[in-house]
Amino acid sequence: MNIGAHRLPVLLACCAVALIYLALPASTLAADAKKAPAATPAAKPAELPLPPPPLPSADPLGRSTPYGTVIGFLRAADKGDYELAANFLDGKQSAKEKEKLARGLKIVLNRGVKIGLDDLSRVPEGRLDDGLSVYQEKVGTAHFGTESLDILLRRTTLPDSPPIWLFTAETLRGVTNAADQLDLAWGEMIWPEQFREIQFLSYPLFLLINQLVGIPLLLGFAWFANRGLLRLLRPLALRHGGEHGERALVQAKWLLFLLIFSILLRILGAQAVTVAGRIFFASAATVLAIVAASWLLVRMTRYTTGLRIHHLQQAGAPSRIAGVDLFGWVLAGVCMLAGLFLTLRVLGFEITPAIAGLGVGGIAIAFAAQKTIENLFGTVTVVTDEAIHVGDQCQAGTTEGRVESIGLRSTRIRTADRTVVSIPNGQLAAMSLVNLTHRDKFLFRHTLRLRYDTSADQLRDVLAKIRKMLFAHPQLEPSTIRVRLVRFGDASLELEAFAYVLTRSQEIFLEIQESLLLKIMDVIEASGTAVAPPPGTESAPADFALNASAANAAASDSRPDSRRA
């Protein structure tokens, strides 16, 4: 089945909501444990006394944490099993009195207490920073008229059992008075009292009807609101992004719908009849909002990055593209990681151990993907150091060419023979990079070797004329020009011509260099001497002279007019 990428966050959000429901501790095991007969231990010889039985590792009713006590009581009370719900109450009342108190406590929690999923501690010790005793935990406060009632839990140790949390006797003493004065929620008020007592699959029927009617209404309102928002945003997208902006808006419409629905669900969920319903709807709305917002931020980041890169290409500034692309990927990764951690926190997972586990797992992943991580950090180094940019002519090791792109893993360079070489950024960061594009001038430096039969007067004439010729050239830097006799070589007199050519273009430099070298040859020939042959080769005869007609023919062939003819 092919599922569009724009609907993937909706599916992920639905899976997260299902995880919220599954994360609530079930009380069916508690009911089974209560009904199961106790096992009879096998008879042992009298002379071998039995060791004391070990304490169970966890309470079968889930009362080991404040969260488990509150949720377990609410589930049992919502199913009408007040006999089971009485097990979550402290005190020495009779069984019938505890069942009556459980009914009143259910009313107080449902009608008068606002509880969030983060308000209930999931650790056995409870919250230690609430200013209460280490053996007490505050669930919330019920307000009725001018009075209020604090709902407290107490950590109690029973014989042969681990410590458990129970609703305190002080709380139970005010439950009956508070339950009589609290008003019905509007979702409960609209139904007759007899109808509210009807159960369906151990759940109040009117609550199921409220949800079956309320959720489709919310979806309808969210759909209309999303349509109106898209109409408002479409002119803005066309003005700033053209067709690309409208396409991005269409791709994000499901995320906008999910965000609007989560806001409406949070508003309506606060009016749920039961506190368990309020906790569930608040958590579900938060997860949906986190998934939609984080995914929407990722899409906006990638769209903004692509738009910026397009503008840089049109403006002729390719050197900044790699930095913008890298920043976009990093920002998108941060948004996704933040959304993941926030979702785990809402689902009740402890983020601190997860981060610690991520660190340990990250070490293992780092060993397994050393080259990938090396290339990623190499990308950061290359981009932030700005040694090369897209479009630059550079030399990396033995590879010389023009930079075509700087990606997250490698940099592509197109060489002079029109092939593309991909160099991993990890290796590129460790290389000596030569950026040929950033040269402000070119070096003209050549060694001239004259024959040993050149006289001193001829040599002075050659040096003077070459200096005069170089100083007269308009594109040579005068302060850097020098022409000197540098050494008596093994087979020649060695002169050095040195100057900087004031140009950034390699083509112009090659043209100027060619002209200077030809003029130097003319100066040497006019002085009556000649260039010495390379060592190890046969020397030309001293009386060697170029035929005048051949020289004139060569000169005419080198003229532009003759080449065009």
Topology:
Blueprint lengths: L7 H16 L4 H8 L30 H13 L3 H4 L9 H18 L23 E9 L2 E10 L7 E4 L1 H5 L1 H7 L4 H4 L3 H4 L8 H47 L1 H17 L5 H41 L5 H26 L4 H18 L1 H16 L7 E4 L2 E8 L3 E6 L4 E5 H6 L2 E3 L6 E9 L5 H17 L9 E7 L4 E9 L4 H21 L21 H11 L1 H5 L1
Helix pairs in contact: 1-12, 5-7, 10-11, 10-12, 11-12, 12-13, 17-18
Write a structural description.
Helix 11 runs antiparallel to helix 12. This protein has four domains: 12-28 and 57-183, no CATH class; 205-368; 372-438, Roll (SH3 type barrels), CATH 2.30.30; 442-537, Alpha-Beta Plaits, CATH 3.30.70. The chain is built from 20 helices and eleven strands. It is of the alpha+beta class. The chain has a five-stranded antiparallel β-sheet. The protein has a three-stranded antiparallel β-sheet with strand order 1-2-3. A three-stranded antiparallel β-sheet has the order 9-11-10. It starts with 7 loop residues before the first helix and ends with a helix.
| Spatial extent as radius of gyration | 43 Å
Point out poorly predicted stretches.
Answer: 1-6, 22-56, 542-551, 557-565
Number of helices: 20
Strand order of the largest sheet: 7-6-5-4-8
Number of domains: 4
Strand content: 5-15%
pLDDT averaged residue by residue: 76
- Total strand segments: 11
Given the C-alpha coordinates, what overall shape results? elongated
Described by strand count, sense and barrel closure, the largest sheet is: 5 strands, antiparallel
Broad structural category: alpha+beta
Helical residue percent? Answer: 40-55%
From the N-terminal CA to the C-terminal CA, the straight-line distance is: 70 Å
